[in-house]
Structure of Glycosyltransferase involved in cell wall bisynthesis:
Amino acid sequence: MRFLLITDTFPPDINGVARTLATLADGLKQRGHEIEIVTTLEASPELAQEPYKRHTVMAMPLPGYPGLRMGFTTTWQMQALYETFRPDALYIATETPLGIASIRAANKMGIPMVSGFHTNFQTYLEDYALPGLETVAQGLLRSLHNQTARTLTPSADTAAMLTRWGIQNVGVLGRGVDTDLFSPSRRSLELRESWGVDEKTPVALYVGRVAAEKNLVLLTQAFAAFREIYPAAPCVVVGDGPKLKSLQTEHPEFIYTGAKTGEDLAAHYASADAFLFPSITETFGNVVLEAMSSGLVTTAYDYAAPRQLIRSGENGFLAPFDDESAFLDQCRMAARAWNEAPLRQAARQAAQDLGWQRVIEQFESELTSVIGTTSSQHSA
């Protein structure tokens, strides 16, 4: 089969959506399908030999967030691309102008589509100086997704939210983790020494975008709560984003590593001991799965991936959604339990049950199942 994946973000971008889509594309290619990608960024030199053709479109930075881009194209341009590649089905992972033009062109040509809801952008509006538009955004998202045969999202919580909005045919496509890459065996004494600790002192870690929607104020409070129990514990921030400089200025006591990928990222996870993740805007939270696979004591809110993966007190710690006081209490619990081998082993085991192969097989099934449908069967 011939599948076209359409997305604003794709490697070399460093984020969970880009990594997920690259993994899915690679998996489909390995299963014998012909894959092409439409995105907003050229491949980096090390990706020049990627196993699929990449088409790049015009893009502009998301207002207030130069690290993210919105793709722009026309219906006519997408029709021309479809005429050349002749895809059997599309996967449209964006609701920006790139996604809108892609859906319009597919409707005109009768090409079946599956859409993806990967990011809660509607909840970011207030953080990025666009308050009061969440209801408008929901209406736009409903209109777009209901023109596709199926909408996939990574967690049951998000699927229920989309259904409440009136989006039809919502399905859950979970996430996986490379347990060989994200493993306790990647622990680096040299890296820990660079952070100023031996094996008797825990390291608290955050991995993700350093951005307003990640609840950074609570993150700083979580680090402080952890250090109430272990005052000498380093607090390490792995990632980049629009709030990095201000966070560095306000909290020079934290260790900032910048964005990491591959084995370097895996070593940073494995060399820490506790993972504190206060975000309340995730559709899934890939970093939680990576942290648990690395054997970390993870603290997060009870929704999305943490709800699926964490049994509080057994393999991590959960707080009721958006209850900041409870979250900080759980961070203190994590500080006390950081070196409990059964808890850390249970975290690793929970992740080992979630490999990528089953996700790729489901994704393949979702795409092939819509072939033969027409836009008139599912248009808004």
In short: The chain is about 40% helix and 20% strand.
